[in-house]
Amino acid sequence: MSPHIRGASEPEVRQPRPYGYAMRSCSLSFADVVRYLDAPVLALRALKSDPVVGVPAVVAARLDGADSGWRTSGRYGVVQFAGGG
């Protein structure tokens, strides 16, 4: 079997991610999260997981009240830019 193909009996190996899997404040700045990258970053993301950054607290509160699954449903997305360095 190719080393790049995971078989049914093999455990999934999660790669480390810059933001991690922790629930943090949505209002945490996207630029703060990607600060370690020394280049401009443009992210076009469909929201499909709990960790979300760069969403103002008032917007997150409104979405929490209207749709409890907004972070994971894929119905919402964000366009985020950080200048780098």
Structure, described:
The chain is elongated, with a radius of gyration of 16 Å. It starts with 29 loop residues before the first helix and ends with a strand. It is built from 2 helices and 2 strands; from the N terminus they run αβαβ. Strands 1-2 form a two-stranded antiparallel ribbon. The longest helix is centred in the last third of the chain and has 10 residues, at 57-66. It is an alpha+beta fold. The chain has a domain at 30-82.
Global Rg:
16 Å
| Mean residue pLDDT | 78
Strand order, main sheet: write it out: 1-2
Q: Helical segment tally?
A: 2
Give the number of DSSP strands. 2
Defining key terms:
alpha+beta, elongated
Strand and helix layout:
Blueprint: H1 30-33, E1 41-46, H2 57-66, E2 77-82
Antiparallel strand pairs: 1-2
Short description:
The protein is of the alpha+beta class and 85 residues long.
